[in-house]
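A quick aside before the break. I want you to see a complete sequence-to-structure record at least once, exactly as it would be stored in a machine-readable document. Don't worry about memorizing anything.
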Amino acid sequence: MDYLFKNALLLNPGEGQARRADVAVKDGLVAGVTQPGTQTADAAGRETIDCADMLMIPALYNAHTHLPMSLFKGISDDLPLDRWLFEKIFPAEDKLNSEMCYWASLLSLAECAQNGVVSCSDMYWFYDGILRAVDESGMKINASRAVQSFDENEDMARNHRLAEGRALYENWHGACDGRIRVDMSLHAEYTSNPRCVSAVIDYAAAHGAGLHVHLSETKSEHEGCIARHGMTPAAYFGSLGLFELHAGLAHGVWLEDSDIELLRGRDVTVMHCPASNMKLASGAAPVTKLLAAGVNVAIGTDGSASNNRLDVLRELELCSLLQRVTNLDSALMPPSSLLGLATRGAARWQGRPDCGSIAPGMRADITLLDLASIEGCPMYDDNTAGALAYSLNSRNVAYTMCDGRMIYARGEHKTIDVERVRREVGVILERVRG
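That is the input. The structure line, written in tokens, reads:
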């Protein structure tokens, strides 16, 4: 179906002040952005939506997450990362199968849709189940199978994780009209070794694939790498050729100034996950330094187990506040700089150049927020970006559109049977707990 959004208050990345516009959507693309009242409202097959009391932004992208981990929301809320992983998460994950991951992913995707999010960069496994859920939801994903190796002498040709990552790329990259893209993935420095890293990098380089990796998330991880290799995680991965690729570095909390210089001018993105980093007491990524060095930064939530929400709007607010309080500077991360981290910056990391803004010819990824609410009153005309960052929240999301398809509208999920998902997840939880 085609759409005409009439008289929307339109805010694109980099703008502090919104403007009124009519926005036409045709065949999955933004067909026109014009002054209100200048487009025909009665075109055949077009649904018209009055947006006089709504703020329109590009739909949000979650640059780092683990969709099936919605099953583990609340499994452990008070442990540091290393104990949280090895004592709670890894044992629970041993009980998973593809069907569990299918239902858990639908649960996560439903939460994303009602929060205005249409695309995720995901790192996990059991992707036959996860991608089935993504396909049915009408949403987008950059999928990457996390590769690990705990034996420095392992023949990587026999590593089943790498084999699954290669098969994922070869069978799914570009599927569903491009909604599904595939990257390669290394879980982290501390769950791999140089032979493993080189094997994954070699495959990604040969196929032009992106590479998704956890990097310098905690102080212990960062310092442990220095003890093991005599260099920081960024320097270690750089020495093995990672930064010659299109790479996504999740977290980057403990990046040093020398690491940031290493990233300068490279085709890399640091995926900042403020809520997860705060909850696990990992620290605060040097986002302002990264941006000053010209490094692309995108916003992620991490998995539900270490965040409890898949709420990118919340992450944008936390990103700004965290930079201000850690640097004692209230001028840092102004609202006009935030939206791009969850739209254009994340779309760049995902390799989607036709996404991330509302302009003719771009993919119609659109989120509309209801301004007829307490949170939206008052709305100062010269600071719409500030209202989005600090006043509005995901409860204000009224519509979410992905590639021109409405997936969430006024509290109704259009592509996911949420009640059935809740029932199925309830059954799965009994198995996971047992």
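Two observations worth writing down. The chain has a mean pLDDT of 95. The two ends are 46 Å apart (CA to CA). We'll return to this after the break.
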